[in-house]
Every structure is written in C-alpha cells, then in structure tokens.
Specification:
- The protein has helices spanning 8-18, 74-83, 135-145, 200-209, 247-250, 262-273, 323-331, and strands at 3-7, 33-39, 42-48, 52-59, 68-73, 89-95, 98-102, 107-113, 129-134, 160-175, 179-199, 216-221, 225-230, 233-238, 256-261, 282-288, 291-297, 303-309, 317-322, 337-342, 349-353, 356-363.
- The protein is of the alpha+beta class.
- It folds into 3 domains: 3-117, DNA Polymerase III, subunit A, domain 2 (DNA Polymerase III, Chain A, domain 2), CATH 3.10.150; 129-249, Roll (DNA Polymerase III, Chain A, domain 2), CATH 3.10.150.10; 252-363, DNA Polymerase III, Chain A, domain 2.
- Helix 1 (8-18) packs antiparallel against helix 2, helix 3 (135-145) crosses helix 4 and helix 6 (262-273) runs antiparallel to helix 7 (323-331).
- The radius of gyration is 25 Å and the shape is elongated.
Length: 368
C-alpha cells in the first residue's frame, strides 16, 4: 500500500502548492502529471514545465507506507481530493500503470506514467550567489512591480522581472515598453553586482506561494538558474537570457509635482474609466493652478469629467494616459499618498509615494 488511511487534506495542501505550473494539455503528456515519491517517511511532490520546477515535502513517518514513486494527472488528482467530503481518510495504492484512490464510499482509478520518465531540471547552480531575506519583503517587492511585466512579448526579456543584487540591496524592475515599475529593499549580505531576469511564471508562482511573514526565503542564483527555498518549498527556474532595457534612463527627474490622496485619485479614475474608449482606455489630465480635471470620452461621443482640488502650482498641462496603467500603479503602492511628477505634455508621468522612498512607476503618455 503506497499510503494507507491518510486525511485527504494532508495530500491536497502540498498538491495545491505545486499545481500552479501544471497545464492540462501539454505536448509532453508527463508534464501534466505530478511526481509523487514516498521514501524515508516523507512524501515529495514535484511538478515541472521544463522551465520551472516546484517541489514540496510532507512528513508521514508515523503512518508508514510503501516506498515508491509514480506520476499522475495533477489537476485530476487535485479535483478528486477537493470534492471528497471533509475529514475523508484516503488510501492510495499503485498497481501496474494505475493508481487507485479509495475512501469508504468512493473509488477512483487513474492512469500513471513511470516516475523514471519524469523530466527533472538539471542543476545549474554551481558557485551560485546566495542571499536571504524575509518572505514578506520579497513578496512585497515582487507585488510592487509584477503588473508592469509584458505578456508574451516578442522581446522575450520583457516577459519577466529584472532582479539586481548589489551591495546590501536587492532591486526589482518590470516593464512592458509602455510603463516601468521599480522598487528596492535591503538584504543582510554584501554582494557583488549581479543581474538576472526571472520569468513571468516564476514571479507569479513566488508571489502566490511566499508568506506575509518574517520567515526567511533563501535565494541562490547563477546566470542560468534561480533557486528559492522557503516554508518547505523549493522552486527552481531557468532565467531569461537577454539584455534588459536601461531602466535608469527611463526614470525621469521632474520639478512639477502633484500630491494626491491615493483613494481620491483611484475613485476618480474608476469613474472616468467607465466612459473611456474600450480599446485605448485613454484619459486626459488637465492640470491648472490648484485644479486637476480628469476627462474621458469614447467613440459614441460620451464624456466623463472629474474635478479635483489640488495643491498644484506648476505649469498648466494637458496630457493623456492609459487609465488602466495609472490604476495599476495606485493599486500597488503602500501608503495613503501618491505623488505624480510631470515634464511636458509629451513626457512620461512619474508616480512615487512618500511612504516608500525607493518605489518608482513611470507611465508613457498617449495621444487622445
């Protein structure tokens, strides 16, 4: 018996940790499977898509079970366990090319593929640099920039987050060519400068799996791979090769500043967005002495206008932006105040916040 009379939650929880990278339809069928290994009183769960691999382990030494390994459809197994009644005790048994999952009243028989055929990632972490920081700090850094990553851009190096370790700082940058987000935090070690591009899928999984806690996450990285170890989880990912844009050149320095209460600006933009063009999502900022007008219109000649009193004393400006991009920045800053800095009507806008001196968010203007 592979595992006998174990609470379904004991299997479901680790399965949910590794299942995020599994696609139902794969060119290689085994990539839709989860590798489950029982050895030395531990059960190890592993999934991969050949670019990223996630492993987590649970201890079942008190329950025993037969040493062995098999691979089975990850999503199917997750759905079966999820819909079984709470507190269900399950027995898992393997016979030839099938695995049987049994409870008192239910029985499921699933196809398996040989464990030895499961394609684990090769270790490319020799002489890796290593840093340690809290899970909540890394999670906050990734959350503060990941919305600016490109999606399936032909400039493949934009489909991820640039991670820079230098001295006692860790910096993260994401851009899709229309906007750019930057943030930085501290680390205890003192490192030589190293840059890697974390793929989008790895960033999304890390953001989901990292805890909002002071527990540590250990990052090892080379120019080929990154390994993150935290909370009994090991995530290994290939890095994206390529030259990331020079983000320092993109971040402007302006003298025209507008301080806004974040929620007031969010609500005004939400209202204006309703009547913006569905394809281009443009809104106009018309800035005059102590006043901001946010104006949107669409192809049906419908228009929305929001008026906000401000502390603005700079030059008058009329400038257009994608409202979704502005909302993304406002939704991902910590604090109650957002500072918008402007150049001329053809220049990008810079969003910062007094609560986090490192954070920068740049949005390119658009013609409306």
């Amino acid at each position: 018996m592979f595992i006998e009379k174990i609470d379904k939650e004991i299997i479901l929880k680790p399965l949910q940790v590794v299942i995020g990278i599994v696609e139902r339809k794969q060119t290689l069928p085994i990539l839709s499977n989860v590798l489950i290994e029982n050895q030395d009183g531990e059960i190890r769960f592993t999934t991969t898509d050949l670019e990223i691999q996630i492993t987590t382990t649970i201890n079942i030494s008190a329950m025993g079970g037969q040493i062995g390994a098999f691979t089975v459809g990850g999503k199917k197994l997750q759905e079966i366990l999820r819909v079984l009644p709470d507190q269900s005790k399950i027995t898992i048994d393997t016979k030839e090319n099938k695995v049987q999952i049994k409870t008192n009243k239910s029985r499921f028989s699933l196809q398996t593929l040989p464990a030895q055929d499961f394609p684990k990632l090769n270790n490319q972490l020799e002489n890796a640099k290593k840093i340690v920081l809290s899970q909540k700090d890394l999670k906050a850094l990734l959350f503060s920039v990941q919305y600016a990553m490109a999606q399936q851009d032909v400039r493949y190096y934009l489909n991820g987050v640039l991670l820079i370790v230098e001295g006692n700082k860790i910096k993260v940058v994401a851009t899709d060519g229309h906007r750019l987000a930057f943030n930085a935090g501290g680390i205890e070690s003192n490192c030589d400068k190293q840059e890697i591009i974390l793929p989008r899928k790895a960033v999304v999984e890390l953001s989901k799996l990292l805890l909002d806690s002071d527990e540590s996450v250990e990052l090892e990285f080379t120019q080929q791979q990154v390994k993150a170890v935290f909370s009994g989880i090991t995530l290994i990912t290939k890095v994206i090769e390529g030259k990331f844009p020079d983000y320092e050149r993109v971040i402007p320095k302006y003298s025209n500043h507008l301080n806004m209460e974040r929620t007031i600006m969010q609500q005004a933009l939400q209202r204006a967005a309703i009547l913006s063009n569905e394809k281009f999502r443009g809104v106009r900022f018309v800035l005059t002495e102590k006043n901001l007008s946010i104006i949107s219109s669409n192809s049906e000649q419908e228009e929305a206008q929001e008026e906000i009193e401000t502390d603005y004393h700079g030059e008058a400006l009329d400038i257009g932006f994608n409202v979704n991009y502005l909302m993304d920045g406002l939704n991902n800053i910590n604090g109650n105040t957002a500072t918008f800095s402007f150049g001329d009507p053809n220049s990008s806008i810079l969003m910062t916040t007094p609560e986090n001196q490192e954070f920068r968010y740049v949005v390119m203007p658009m013609r409306i």
